[in-house]
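In this supplementary section we document a worked example of the pipeline. Step one takes a protein sequence of length 193 as its only input; no multiple sequence alignment statistics are reported here. Step two produces a three-dimensional model, which step three serialises into structure tokens for compact storage. The input and output of this example are shown verbatim.
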Amino acid sequence: MNPRVSPLRVAAGAVALCGLLAGCAETGAKGDPGGNRFISGDGNVQKIPAGERKGPQSASGTTLDGKPVSLAALRGKVTVVNFWASWCAPCRGEAPSLEQVHTETKASGVEFLGVNFKDSPQNARAFDRRFKITYPSVFDGSGQIGLAFRDVPPNAIPSTLILDRRGRVAVRVIGATTYSALKPLVTAVAAEK
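The serialised model returned by step three reads:
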């Protein structure tokens, strides 16, 4: 047996390896361990001028610790609504940034609300403990809260919507966000009169 490998075998191996790696590459759709499919975003920011905003948004649910919450009750405050799941790697990556912006803006009246979906309440609570999330999250197993945002849908996991004081979507971030991207957006909406 010849220890040397023929160039034809090397080429065939390279083609097979490329095919295998292409199957692992992102195509815009991913699957979580539970078999859910989701579209990954790229952090794209859409700012909506005040005169073009739709709303107000109306949705309600129960937080992970059993308390009722509604978007109507948060009107009058700037509200950051983050759609996430515990199995979502970008959600884990952005969690510390969301918590930091929440901590730094809550004294100025900015509210944060997480919306957990395609997940389980147990995994969602474990996520909040792991990342020391102090703002409330709603378990939205049926997706009803996401559907309430028909005019400016979240469209990806994670997604973040910033609602103005009238409950209208002022900013949409599709995909993971960072502290340096989110803080100025929240501050700008909070500065609106």
